[in-house]
Amino acid sequence: MALKVLSALDSAKTQYYHFKAIVVAGMGLFTDAYDLFCIPPIMKLLGRIYYSHRPRYEVPASVTSAMLGTALLGTVTGQLVFGHLGDRVGRRRVYGLSLLLMVISSIWCGFSMGTSRTCVLLSLGFFRFMLGVGIGGDYPLSATIMSEFANRKKRGAFIAAVFSMQGFGILVSSTVTMVVCAVFDKATNASPGDETPEVADLAWRLILMAGAVPAGLTYYWRMMMPETARYTALVERNVEQAAKDMQKVLSVSLSQIAELQEEEQQEASQTNIPPPSNNYPLLSKEFLRRHGRDLFACATAWFLVDIVFYSSNLFQSQIYHRYMPHQNKLNAFQEAFHVAKLQAIIAICSTIPGYYATVYFIDRIGRVKIQMMGFLFMGLCLLAIGIPTSCTGATTPT
């Protein structure tokens, strides 16, 4: 019965509520990107504050890797935990829980404290891990929520539009960092050779705490929306409530749903063949037979693209160091400003246009071709970036 009822959702016309779902689900990924990619310029400030005795104020590679990796480790943990809970207790509750954790963790990051450099960095790393757990819960549920609200005709474009908010999250994190650094730079009027002002310790905290704002707004908006009809009908098996939720937010009448329900009952009475059972454990033989190949292929493709996506975004200042002003000519705020500006330029010129090209073409040429084109262009771009380095013998500073 539930599958026929949900065919009304698949055939629903594109309307206002679909775009509202894009914004609400997309704001989750927007916040994820803000929190994950605001850290590279912050590492420059931390180097100036806590490693002023080292050449070029460089944070040790082990500390940098740990600070960048803790959030990603938390993300993996959150995906496994909240993904499982999303199927057990519902998308709405778990999505709200992950957003609350992101709000609290963003604020905690700003209050990282201690009597020594080690204590500050350890507390920041712990809070970044907790932030990553919240991001891990939000990341898959945002796409799931959109896919379950979307109609069949525009589902690909809707989900791609949700993921496109990552590009804007990177852009806004860079913009906030540039604004904060510009304000502090003007207020302190520090010269490149001067000692790093104490207020620099406040600047990076404000940038991190600003991530609580979009997470809090997204939590409020999501709590105003009902549970997805697909979850209510298929998992909770409450078809009547799913129908009421659909009528409340979409232009789908109860009479239309009732007609589909009657058609299903008539079809069931005319045949003695029982419908295939969808009740089988995760990673069981039946699960692997039905979904194993697709799951493995999708997970592998995502794994490979994330290696490139996250490494190239988190280490942009090292990759493009030759195009940035020398550190001796910049104070702490100016150096962080230039790193953030580089992130913003790349987001505007490549990341955001790439996302919206996918939104436009995904339902026209198909998912597989879009993905193949994406991998091809990523490979060509990485090759183009790497060739000048190998030809000139330039090396990344350590």
Give a description of the structure:
Belongs to the major facilitator superfamily. Phosphate:H(+) symporter (TC 2.A.1.9) family. This protein is mostly helical and 398 residues long. The protein has a domain at 15-224 and 315-365: Growth Hormone, Chain: A (Up-down Bundle), CATH 1.20.1250. It is built from 16 helices and no strands. The protein has helices at 2-10, 16-37, 39-50, 61-89, 91-110, 117-149, 155-188, 200-209, 212-223, 229-234, 239-249, 254-270, 285-314, 316-319, 332-365, 367-392. Helix 1 (2-10) packs across helix 12 (254-270). The longest helix is centred in the middle third of the chain and has 34 residues, at 155-188. The protein is globular and about 70 Å long. The model has no long low-confidence stretch (mean pLDDT 85).
Per DSSP, the total helix count is: 16
What would you give as the CATH superfamily of the domain at 15-224 and 315-365? MFS general substrate transporter like domains
Topology-level CATH name of the domain at 15-224 and 315-365: Growth Hormone, Chain: A
Tell me roughly what share of residues is in helical segments.
over 70%
Chain-averaged pLDDT: 85
User: What is the correct CATH architecture of the domain at 15-224 and 315-365?
Assistant: Up-down Bundle
The rounded Rg comes to 24 Å
Coarse shape: globular
Low-confidence stretches: none
What structural class do you assign from the helix and strand content? mainly alpha
What portion of the residues fall into strands of 2 or more residues? under 5%
The CATH class assignment of the domain at 15-224 and 315-365 is: Mainly Alpha
Largest sheet: none
How far from one another are the termini? 62 Å
Order of helices and strands: HHHHHHHHHHHHHHHH
Number of strands: 0
